[in-house]
Each structure stands twice: as structure tokens, then as C-alpha cells.
Amino acid sequence: xxxxxxxxxxxxxxxxxxxxxxxxxxxxxxxxxxxxxxxxxxxxxxxxxxxxxxxxxxxxxxxxxxxxxxxxxxxxxxxxxxxxxxxxxxxxxxxxxxxxxxxxxxxxxxxxxxxxxxxxxxxxxxxxxxxxxxxxxxxxxxxxxxxxxxxxxxxxxxxxxxxxxxxxxxxxxxxxxxxxxxxxxxxxxxxxxxxxxxxxxxxxxxxxxxxxxxxxxxxxxxxxxxxxxxxxxxxxxxxxxxxxxxxxxxxxxxxxxxxxxxxxxxxxxxxxxxxxxxxxxxxxxxxxxxxxxxxxxxxxxxxxxxxxxxxxxxxxxxxxxxxxxxxxxxxxxxxxxxxxxxx
Length: 343
Ligand SMILES: C[S@@+](CC[C@H](N)C(=O)[O-])C[C@H]1O[C@@H](n2cnc3c(N)ncnc32)[C@H](O)[C@@H]1O
Description:
This protein is an alpha/beta fold. The protein has 11 helices and 15 strands. It has helices spanning 25-38, 50-63, 65-68, 70-86, 103-114, 128-138, 160-165, 187-197, 216-223, 230-242, 303-312, and strands at 3-6, 9-12, 18-19, 91-97, 118-125, 150-151, 173-178, 203-209, 250-258, 264-272, 276-280, 283-287, 292-300, 315-322, 328-335. The chain has an 8-stranded mixed beta sheet, sandwiched between helices. Strands 9-10-13 form a 3-stranded antiparallel beta sheet. The chain has a two-stranded antiparallel sheet with strand order 1-2. Strand 5 (118-125), helix 6 (128-138) and strand 6 (150-151) form a beta-alpha-beta unit. The longest helix is centred in the first third of the chain and has 17 residues, at 70-86. The protein is globular and about 60 Å long. The termini are far apart. Bound molecules: S-adenosylmethionine. S-adenosylmethionine (SAM) binds at residues 43-44, 47, 98-100, 104, 125-127, 130, 153-155, 179-181.
């Protein structure tokens, strides 16, 4: 393999990336058809193309409190420090689920390395482009041989624990990160999967978007403008426009609705105002005027609801940090019912 000289010495000019079957072309095609058939778009299709990734990054830059609010950025740093302080082993494997560009994971890796541990990293995302960006970010902190990029759909992959464990012949503590992900999954689908990755001595560090204040409904109303804005509309509409739908074929509307497990979420539905046809390979989908397709949802939790929902899946919060705005929280989580001696 040709090698080039980087700031840190010789580095391969190719990357080994594992593609899980959940992101093989036939699986992606099946999921796309399912999205159109059910009129409920799987969120992963908003991160598919370079164009969508760039639009999402612009939106994230403009609206993400973690990027624009120093106090919110600080809750992540506190979470990273607390997680690093709890790791007793000499080797630790960070698994970044839905890693995006991997900037947050890299901050955690840096802290863990400063403690003199050997660090391993699996950036895992549905988007190969994101995984490669996260890998690149992480290579500033760890050697290439310790980085195992994985492209995978977390909602449909059923064998992640085995896939991750197969990397090691010896015990390595694991910290799984799940930042900015929980809002876009049905909790009853994703939480059992997350729980299956947290072994008795492992940690899970995740962030949740919160509804601020004590009144859930009022808090949801307050955050609605963070979604109903031109950058978000442009990003979400890209999915439909790329399938041949015209901007004039309907309207994108945002609202608050009741989701599962007594939680509330913001939804973005596209309401067709005239007939429209989408063709994907040899399948045709006809939309009538008045029909809707759900493009997006985002659950907003309240801290005590996070605790309650996690408990259903055998997970407990050991520490939490809530931004002063009360709009975002970072939670350090472990398997419940494991005594301190066994950890
Ligand atoms: C809101 S971003 C969060 C990125 C990063 N964790 C952060 O906090 O900046 C969501 C990420 O999840 C990925 N994603 C969406 N659906 C996914 C799925 N089903 N499985 C794995 N990754 C997914 C997207 O590609 C995107 O990188």
C-alpha cells in the first residue's frame, strides 16, 4: 500500500473500513422502499449524500448548542472527565455510535490518552463519509492500527455486541458514546440495542435534547423554532427533491406530537397539495393531494424521563450534566444492579 508522510510520521493512504450488512446496497434499497411505502422516512436517508452531509454540517454549526453555547460545550467536557476518571483498566475502547465528524469522541479520546491508557476507537455511522472524517479526526490522537471504522445501521444491525467484541482477544473496557442520536430513534427500538452493548464494567455516555423548564408542553413549544427554520427545511427537503418531488408539490410543516413511552417529539411532515409520483427503480409510489410523508422526528426528553426510560432497559444514570439553558443534557450511564466490587 502506498504510504505518505503525515505530521505524525508515515501513514497509509488507504483506510480499512468494515461495512456491516445493514448498509449493503440491498439493505439500503429495502429501507428506502420501506420509507416510501410507510410514508415514514428513516432518518439515515438525510445523511446519505455529500450534499446532505454538508447541509447538515451547516445547520449543526448554526444551531447546535454544543457548538454555540460555551456552557453547553462544558457539560460534554465534564462528562468526558467523569467517564475517564471511572476507567480503571489500562486499555479502553471507545465506540462512537452515530459518530458524525467525531469531534466529541476525539475530545474524550484525548483525555483517556492523557491518563496513560492504550486507547482504541470504533467510529460507527451509517455514512461512510462521516466514518472517514471521524477516523481522520481521531488519528490526531491514536495510531491507525487502533482505529476500526464501521459503517452500520444501528436500527437494523442485530449483532453489534459480537462484531465489537471480535476485535479483541483480551478484556478491554468499553465506553460507548451516543451523542445527538437518541432524539431520532424510537426509544423501544434503540435502547435495547444500546443496553446490549453495555457490559457490567462498561460505560455509556450520551446526550439528549431536552424540553426546557418544568412544563413539558411549554418547553416543546419553546424549542420549535430551532427546527422550523430555513436551514433545517432545506436539509430535510433534499431527500424529497432528489427523488423528483417539486418544492411546489406541497408544504413542510413542523409540529409537536405525542410519541411513545409518554414522550413528546417535534415532527416534520410534508403535506402534498397535488398528486405526485415517485419512482425508484421499478417501484412507483403515488401520493394523493392531502397525503403526508413524515420526514423527521426529534424526541425531547426531560431529565427525569431519561432516568425512567433507561431504567426500563436495565440502565442507570451515575451522573448527569444539564446545560444552563436546560435544552441539552449529558448522561453517564452504566448497567443497573451491578455492585461496585464487580465493576
Ligand atoms: C445528529 S448527528 C450526531 C453526530 C455526532 N454524534 C455529534 O454529536 O456531533 C446524527 C448522526 O447519526 C448518523 N445516523 C443516522 N441514522 C443512523 C443509523 N440508523 N445508524 C447509524 N448512524 C446513523 C448520521 O449519519 C449522523 O452522523
